[in-house]
Amino acid sequence: MLRGFYTAASGMISQQRHQEALANNIANANTPGYKADQATLRAFPEMLMHEMGGKNIPTQNNVKFPIRNPIGSLNTGVYVDEMVPNYMQGDIRDTGISTDLALVNGNMPDETGSIFFTVQNAAGEERYTRNGNFTVDGQGYLVSNQGYYVLDQAGNPIQTDGMEFHVTDNGVIQLDGGQNIPLGIAYTENANDLEKEGNDLFAGEAGAVPEGATFTVQQGFLEGSNVDAMQSMTEMMEAYRMFETNQRVLKAYDESMDKAVNDVGRIG
Asked: Is the same domain home to 235 and 188?
């Protein structure tokens, strides 16, 4: 009986976390470069149930042999194993703003490979992002919309001295004074190894773009979120129904326990 409580409760908790992830996706449906989270559910290890007993053998000494017949497996619940970002390319939209940059994927040598802009977070550490909604701060540095420095290929902040600059298709910033600064475009063989942080940042290991990998940087464009709002709403309704189902199961167990304690166990 108590095992049923835990199984139904684990189903409610996992569906609640699933709903929270979907709600966060919908809230970021208009965030440039946002990658939707996908909740992966996994069952707890199953238990193999056996019938334990003994069988008397009609012999002179009345020997008793143990019996261990398998009954079947019992699932003990489900949990959210992890949140896996979906790195599919978002829609590219024209903004007409010179500091907006969009990374457009080309051919990647690895099926799970991906490219990112490199920025410096508040702690001075390198992070990666697909959000190219950049601007120029009061000191003339190219920064993200959270104020993080956008880095060049050498890992240094990019000084543009204003918003008048041109970015080539291969990611080189051309300034009016004739200076060319390559953007810090990072590549990872497996984007799933990156850890998602707040403010559209990813942490992990990434390096230079290898030979064979192709991409395009489009100035005056932004990559949109890859959240499918309609699909996310549908999944939210499904998760809510599953939550309600587990809730009803939990209520049925509670009513059965109440009857067993107050009615069956009562001495007339």
From this structure: no
Q: Binning pLDDT at 50, 70 and 90, where does residue 45 land? A: low
The top-scoring range by mean pLDDT among 53-62, 71-80, 137-146 is 137-146
What residues have CB less than 8 Å from 172, skipping those under 6 apart? 180, 181, 182, 183
Q: Can you tell me which residue has the tokens 């599919």?
A: 88
pLDDT at 251: 86
Same domain flag for 202 and 99: yes
Q: What is the mean pLDDT of residues 16-29?
A: 93
Mean pLDDT value of segment 13-27: 92
Q: What integer pLDDT is reported at residue 266 of this predicted model? A: 63
In this structure, are strands 47-56 and 101-105 parallel, antiparallel, or unpaired? unpaired
The whole domain housing 15 covers 2-83+229-264
Q: Which residues contact 263 (CB under 8 A, 6 or more apart)?
A: none
| 187 and 147 share one domain | yes
CA distance 126 to 206: 10
**Do residue 11 and residue 51 come from a single domain?**
yes
Count of structural domains within the chain: 2
Residues 54 and 124 in one domain: no
Assess contact for 245 and 128: CB atoms under 8 A. no
Residues 118 and 193 in one domain: yes
The whole-angstrom separation of Cα 171 and Cα 185 is 8
Distance (Å, whole) CA 223 – CA 25 = 16
Q: Write down the residue that tokens 């051309």 correspond to.
A: 174
Instruction: Give the chain's mean pLDDT.
Output: 87
Pair (218, 233) in one structural domain:
no
